[in-house]
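Intended use. Records such as the Bacterial Pleckstrin homology domain-containing protein entry shown here are meant for training and evaluating sequence-to-structure methods. They are not intended to support clinical decisions.
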Amino acid sequence: MLGKLLGAVTGDAGQVAPEALGERFLQALLPDETVLAAFRTVRDGFALTDWRLLIMDRQGVTGSKTAVVSVPYRSVLRFSVETGGTLDLDEELRIWDRAGADPWSFSLRRGGGAAALAQRILSERLRG
């Protein structure tokens, strides 16, 4: 319980049901697309589907403007998971794609299994 509360305050992502990412996210899904895992911070979120990474980037003061970024797994070059140390409350997932120099970076709540789940799904999807 304390971890969820601290995660909400610090903005660390935790695993959620896909519906928790909002109506705009659900509209971005294809009819036959399967969400393997979804994660949400206070404002933003991302999901790993059966064929792509979907990122919900809410912008502006109210967060009503939303960018939906789609990164097919074939465009992912590499990824890394940095686990938390003794005093860290989060773990970090970074994903590099062909389009940009800077990686997508997601802060995941430590101890909830989110980083391990994301790492497993990415490993399976990128295995080729």
